[in-house]
Amino acid sequence: MYKVLTLNNISVAGLERLSREKYEVASEIQNPDAILLRSYKMHDMQVPETLLCVGRAGAGVNNIPVDVMSKKGITVFNAPGANANAVKELVISGMLLGARNICQAWNYTKNLEGDDASLNKLVEQGKKQYGGFELVGRTLGVIGLGAIGRQVANAASALGMKVVGFDPGITVQGAWKLDASVEQASSIDDLVSKVDFITFHVPLIEATKNMINADRLKRMKNNVTILNFARGGIVDDEAVCKALDAGEVHAYITDFPSNLTKSHDKVITLPHLGASTVEAEDNCAIMVADQISDYLENGNILNSVNFPDVQMPRSHGSRIAVTNKNVPNVVGQLTTKLADASLNIIDLLNKSRNEYAYTLIDVEGEVNDSLIAELQSIEGVLRVRAL
Description:
Layout: E1 2-6, H1 12-15, E2 23-26, E3 34-37, E4 53-56, H2 66-71, E5 75-77, H3 84-99, H4 102-110, H5 116-126, E6 139-143, H6 147-158, E7 162-166, H7 172-176, E8 183-184, H8 188-192, E9 197-200, H9 214-219, E10 224-228, H10 237-245, E11 249-254, E12 267-269, H11 278-298, E13 318-325, H12 330-340, E14 345-353, E15 356-363, H13 369-376, E16 381-386
Parallel strand pairs: 1-2, 1-3, 3-4, 4-5, 6-7, 6-9, 7-8, 9-10, 10-11, 11-12
Antiparallel strand pairs: 13-15, 13-16, 14-15
């Protein structure tokens, strides 16, 4: 039976994918084979020796020490795209909130005093302060055209907006999913100079930290609206607040409040609501539960952030799964040791990703512990499993 440790509350819809006949799932469990989590920070956690995989019920993995896991041959999964619709809807809401000054107008109305006749008079007097503009014909810049960015771009296009996108890592398959009207920017600086709204859908890494800063704000149109529903740190809050005070930026809508932004009149701060819908939590949990179960039971990898996608149909034989450093002749040594053990290979699939590689091998006959130890002894091999 596989043991699964949950470090956060995981949607029941996901946990139900792990049958009680095969899985023991609990928030306190010793020697887990897998960990399921959402926002729990694992960086200071001691990694169990038994751990085979980690499943993040969401897209970002900043709360997981991926490098540490990789060196131990532990596969880290996420759930890209499972929360895309939820984030897309919030981004569109954010654009509308900013364009129509809805939060400021709401606060104004909420604080009015007097009888209904007096209120009506104050409403008519005050509404001029909160006149906004429409989205149709405005230009949205989307940085990051993964599952979320594509949905945002397509939705904005459907609303009659012009859309400019930038993503140097976009795949051919990803490009096919974009509306044909979405224009390609040659660089971030090219994009920021063209847009009335800008939204980010990238992870927080060194290259994306303070992507919008004082220098880039100078390149942007006056009265631009900035939206950050990706990660705190992608936008330099101090630089944006200075631009807001100077009247250069119209509004800043962010899911990542700070003491600087939470009370600013032109900033709308939300408590990280991007994926906080019942549907998104269910979708993320289902996706990641399916991925870890397929990995534990069959050795297949889908949507790992540190190892390549490797999926091979099961044959009638025994299966061996090997994680290793991406160095020469590991596969050759694996097959030699299998031949020495008189095991015929039925099927084999090997793929690499940056520093690491992963191999599935189906063989005729039983795989014993001594053979696993032999395979594990090969230089560069991180982990070997018999399934």
